[in-house]
Each structure stands twice: as C-alpha cells, then as structure tokens.
C-alpha cells in the first residue's frame, strides 16, 4: 500500500551496512572540493557531520542560532552515551543493544537502522577518546560504565553529569580544526528561515542574520538539517529556550514527509513546576535512578500532611513508603524505561499520593545509596546534579529526598528519512533528534547522543556521497536564480506580516497558552475527545496569534521578539500536527498513550495489526488537512511482542 | 519559604555596537523568591511589551548552567551575587525587598556589545580554532581502552574540561585577560596522553591568538578564579605557562 521507499539494503541484517558501504558511490578527492554542503545545526549531529565532511575535503557551510557552535543544546545532555563495547563482560553485544533499542522503542522503529546504530556505537567511543573526551575511568585506567533504564547491562559511558558537554566539545573542537583548515565556514547567530528547491532538489537556504535582521542566500549541492527537537512546542520542557522546530517544519511545508510527530518522550525525573513565571524545566538525569529510589507515601493522610508542610519525608517510616516502581516492575525496578516510569508517577499523583505543595511530585531518595556507598562516591557520580537541584529548590538532596515530576524532554518524531538519512526531497538530509529514524515510539536513555554522533561521524558522511557522486557535474549556482529570489521574498513578506500585526499579546503569553493546551490535551494521557478538542483550540490560538501578537522594535538590527514570534508561528503548526498524528494513531505505544488502548493493569497496549507503520504526513497547503502516508514496518529478525518489564 | 519582592532594576541599554549606551531604571513588583533571575527579567520584559516598549535583550539558552550563553554583570559581579553558578542559576532569594539591582553586559574590548546586555564572544571560538583540539580525523583511531588513563588524571582533565566558555573570567579581570579560559583547554589536553604530542604547539598558538584578539595579559590577580562558575582553578594557568615556556625553549 505504501509508495514510500526506505532503501534498506539487501542481505542479512548484520551485513546490510557493510554491504551498503562496499557498494555505494563515492566522490573522488579532487571533486570533493567542488561540492558545497550546508549543515544546519552544530549539536552533536551537526558538528560531527561538519567536522567529518570538512576533513574529507568537502566545502562545508555550518549554521547555528547561538553565538557559538559550542552552545548547541546537546551541551546540556547529562547522563551518558551507550555503546556495545561489553567492557564489563556482562553479556553485552551489538545484537543485545539492537534488541534493547527495538524493544525500548516499542517495536515502532526500523530494524536495519537500529542495527546499524548499534554496530557503529563502538566506533563513537573510540573516536571520542581519541579527541580527548575525559570519560570516567576506573582505578586501573580503563573506561567506566553505568546503567540506564530499560536494559540489564552496564553499557553507558559518561563524563560526570556533563557527558553531552564533553562529547559536544569534542565534536566542536574537531569542527573548529576544520574551520582553521578552511574547509568549514561558520555562520553563527544565523537562522534558517527557508529551504531553496531547484528542479526538485534541495539547493540552498535563506537565513536571517539574528544580529542585523538581514536575509541572506546560500547555495549548496546538498543541505543537511541537524536542528534538534521540537519539544518546546509544549513551552515548558527540558530543552534549551532556543530549541525549535522551524527548519523541519519549513522542510515539511516544502514537501518533506514529517514522520511520527506524536512520538514524544516525557522524562520521569525533572524538577517540578513552581509557578506561572516558570520558563523551563530542569532535568535530573536518568543516571540518578542507578542509585536513587522512587517513592510516595503509602498512606493518603501522610501525602496530605506533606503537601500541607506538616510532615517531612524523612519522618515517614520505611514501611509507610510505596516504592511503586519496585513494587510494580520487580525485574527492572527503578530502571524501567522512561515512558513506563512517567506514567506510573502520574498514576500515583492522580490517585492522590503526590507530594510537593501542588501534589504533582514524587520522591527520589538517595538515603540508602549514601549509607551503602558513602557521600563521597555519590558526589563523584552526581555532584553537579545535586548542586543544580540545591540551587533551584533551596533544599539539600544529600539530606532529604529530591522531588521530581515528569516533563517533556525529547522527540522521537521528526523529518522522515530513508536508510541514507535522506528525506523524500533529493539532496535534503536530516540527522540527530530532528529526524525520526531510530527510536521508534520511545527512546532509551543515553541513546540520543549515540544516534546524533552515529549519524554525524559514521553514517551521513558515507551516505551523502552516494548522492553527491551524481552531482559532480553540477556547477555552483548563482543565488540570483529566481528560486532564491522568490524564497527570500516570501521570507521577507512573512516577517513583515508578523511585525505588522501590532496586536496586544506578547509572544510568550501565546506560547504559554499553546503549552497548556498541549500538556492538557496532547500530553501523557491522550483520548479521542481530548485530542479533538485540542486541535480546535490550537486552530483558534493560531488565529489569535496571527491577529493579536505584538512585536515591539524594528525589522532591522537585533529583534529577539521577532525571532521568537517566527518560531512560535511554526510551533503552532507543529502542535496541530502532533495532535492530528496522536488522534490518528488509535493505539498506545511507547511514549504515546491512548487511554482507550491499555491492558487491564494500565500498561500501554499496542495494536500491531493496524498500526505497525511509520506515519508520514504530507503537507497539502495552508488551508487543507495534511495527508497521511504509511511506511509499513516489516520485522524480519525480531518478533513483535508486548513489552514486559515486570 | 517563598516570599515576594519589589525591586528596582537599573539596566544597561545600547541600541547597537557603535551607539552610546545608558542606564535605565524600571520597577518590578511581586517577584517570587523562588523565581530565577532570568525569569525576573522575563517578567520585566513582559511588562515592557505591554507598555509597547522594546524589551531588554540578553543572551541565554539552556537556563541550567551548562551552555555558557548567559552573561550578565549583576551588582558588580559576573553572574551575580552567588558562588559557583551562572546567571541563569541565580535565584531571587539572593536579593532583598526594595533593593536596586544593577545589570550590565560583560565589559571587555574583545567582547564588543551587540545590543543591550548581549556581547560578541566569537573571539573565544577563534582561540579554539587556533589549536584547542587534538588533531585526529574521523575514523581510524585505536580502541578506547588501548591507552589506560589513571582515574585521577581523567578526573583532573575533567575538572579543566568543565569550562563553559562563558567569559566571566574575562569580564572579572582588570586586564580583560582570557588566560583562565585558554589554560583550561590547554591543561585538559596536555594532561591526557592523547593530547601530549601537540601540547607545546597548542599552548603557543592559542596564546598568540588570544593576544592578537585584544585580550590582556595575566598579572595573577586571581579575580577570574573567584568568579568562574565552574571552579576552574588558576593552577591551570601555571600549567599553561609551563607548556608555553617549553614551546619557547624548543624554538
Ligand atoms: C537536559 C537534557 C539532557 C539530556 N541527556 C541526555 C543523555 O544523557 N544521553 C542522551 O543520549 N541524550 C540526552 N539528551 C538528549 C540529547 O541531548 C539530544 O537529543 C541531542 O543532543 C540532540 O542533538 P542534535 O545535534 O540533534 O541537536 P541540538 O544539540 O539540539 O542542536 C541543534 C542545532 O541546530 C541549530 N538550529 C536550530 N534551529 C535552527 C535554525 N532554524 N537555523 C539555524 N540553526 C538552527 C541550533 O543552533 C543548534 O546548533 C538530553 C536532552 C536534554 C534536554
Ligand atoms: S574559565 Fe570559567 S569563567 Fe572563564 S569561560 Fe571558562 S567557565 Fe567561564
Ligand atoms: S543559559 Fe546556559 S549557562 Fe546560563
């Protein structure tokens, strides 16, 4: 039924990638210099891609919205990165990492992609060590590991609670070396506002210079989007303030499929919301669940007393605590996957056992771990997270349990890409969190860093050559071509339109309203009725935005409100698409929980007969509903079964 | 316990790099002590937008102390009146009701103001491009466990690698020196066996670039270390000086 070609190579699962590499077309060194590649984004995916492509000899143009490539949101990743090294000799292997990822993703990812990811995971660790990433070590000098949720081996490599920072700095430095060599040109504080397509192929971008406000045109033989996730559609999330979905929404509006937009990860351990002024949520890394135990009071009256400030958690006796994850999932305990942990926490709070003044929090307790391992070890493992918590909550987690609650964290959905990471627009590629590829309906902890770097260092630099080999006779094009002209004009009109609305409401006030709609209607528990209402509300809010937003300041020069308004316009499109996808997927899987589809004990119930596909949305114009296309998921090596972490 | 503050915010306004700047004072009311400093700035900006005025531009992104984007000089201190934090991790409980809070951009010749509180720190990227890396390409590297790295060396390298590139050290220094930033990277890579081969050259090229870009020299005032949100120690500068001397001798 589907005409969507994912271009999975022939052969047995374990040989596909090798076969592909042996048979793909490559570009000769002398021709590489003549080929331009635009890489949008300098997170793990973008920086590693730009560094690798530059070193190969391509002419790379790199873009990011921050003042420095090193500040991409990947910098904030805390806990670690997975690899199937089996250094711990605990039975790990490429195959086991593959299976864990497929199962963790609730059987909604592509076998071949996931296998390749597991296969290259080991190269990533070697690469990062060679770059000088200071991974944690054992006394003997070998690399140390910790465990993450959803698995029973210890395969996560880490650099204290700053793994993302260290990996990104490694990739950034490799890229800056190429800047020095002249193969990569940097464009910072530069935002992609449109993608230029000529004769059906991606040929460049229109950017807005955030400092001058000027629109600029850039040509390339191929364009790579590595712009990260769209979690900020929900306003409050663990993402950085500038994380956005604009570039991929623009690609979607130009005809690229948007895949599985409703697959969004809600992370169980974040610092709870305080008040209306809240601007973002802070993650407390999943690695904390290695040693921390999650609980709420067993008795409702205790929970009430805690909420009223009459009782302290430390005063509750051991037998009056409900370690609900250990109780419900004895095999995995506190280390169940994120979607399972988040729902279990919400269930306890909904039932009236929540803590914090709001009743929307549970405890994460280190008392036992500190007794067992000593405070020093705990500080070594999680010191910066404890400090972060203390600064925000004004409370000492060494002495009293942390309070945590689920929050929007990561998006599994994104631009549809084939095995080569190419979208359905020739010459347009997508890497990292921005694509949909490897995590199915739920991502396992420490696998996003793995995927971003796999894409950027080891996959895209090969696969893009298969396309570029056919472009060696295409000369650099002039940016005076009518297609560039028109794209720039449309962007100009769009910004003028925004600026001239001259309404009454600030961008943030509308964004917060969108966030509330999303959280209430398109959040952790989704229903047909709620989603339908949500869509109506988003459509109405879109109208409100386009008629009542107020953007002070000028078109020229820096205008932060104008930047934000442009991104919000796209979040509103994103929100609607998420809700539509969630409505059409009448099953529960991974992070997508339809209340209509659950087992007797409240676990997510998949419907493989009707929904074992990737939903690929095709834009049909401003006033038409998008069209749903399906890429069937054919499992040849793994049997789809109901997940069980009990 | 949460309480509420009424404050006067005296903040730097500057339209563009070549324009003259000035202070402007605003009142904000009923600010929760549980809100962050930047959330207070959001509230102030929301108020300005309501009054149809242009909001105050400031840099920020992660709002959890790791990206190094936030950069305010608050009451005479880079990152404000708390220790071991960035501006985005500063909470309003550090202030008193009725207080006037002065907010300025980083001030250093090598960090020109772009607008209001936003400065241009691309000079830091240029210093890294001059040599702040180990020269390995993608692929063809040995197994990660091939070189054993003693735990304490890895930990020390990590201490230096924790620098977030915020520039507070430059803003705190009367010479606007970037020595703490440069030395943190030089130390991290010089400590690790993988980085040793290039360590002299690296130190020399990075320091040369730093001087070229208009940062001042280090006169050991240690102001940088005091204000560094990531506790980068001045002992890194001593290590840099050793690497630098070695490179001079080997010329
Ligand atoms: C707090 C936190 C902790 C995490 N911890 C972990 C962890 O421990 N392990 C793990 O595996 N994963 C973790 N993750 C997830 C992981 O960090 C991200 O999925 C991953 O870093 C995304 O990388 P990326 O390269 O795809 O995008 P990003 O790092 O988000 O980079 C996006 C880039 O695109 C640029 N950009 C965006 N839009 C535009 C535009 N329109 N024009 C130009 N440039 C643009 C930005 O400037 C930036 O350079 C964590 C996430 C969060 C939020
Ligand atoms: S050394 Fe400290 S103050 Fe200087 S840039 Fe690094 S983190 Fe900031
Ligand atoms: S906003 Fe990222 S460190 Fe402050």
Molecular structure report:
By secondary structure, chain A is of the alpha+beta class. Chain A has 18 helices and 19 strands. Chain A has helices at 16-23, 29-32, 44-56, 94-104, 111-131, 163-181, 246-253, 300-307, 324-328, 338-350, 367-373, 375-393, 448-468, 482-499, 507-521, 528-548, 560-584, 608-611, and strands at residues 36-40, 59-63, 81-82, 156-157, 184-187, 190-198, 201-209, 215-219, 222-225, 258-259, 264-270, 293-297, 321-322, 362-365, 402-411, 414-415, 428-430, 613-618, 627-632. The mean pLDDT of chain A is 96. Chain B is an alpha+beta fold and 251 residues long. Chain B has 9 helices and 7 strands; from the N terminus they run E-E-H-E-E-E-E-E-H-H-H-H-H-H-H-H. In chain B, the strands form 2 sheets. Chain B has a 5-stranded mixed β-sheet with strand order 2-1-5-3-4. Helices cover 35% and strands 15% of the residues of chain B. In chain B, helix 5 packs antiparallel against helix 7 (199-212). The relative contact order of chain B is 0.13. Chains A and B meet through helix 3, helix 5, helix 6, helix 12 and helix 13 of A and helix 1, helix 2 and helix 3 of B. The structure holds flavin-adenine dinucleotide, iron/sulfur cluster and FE2/S2 (inorganic) cluster. FE2/S2 (inorganic) cluster (FES) binds next to loops of chain B.
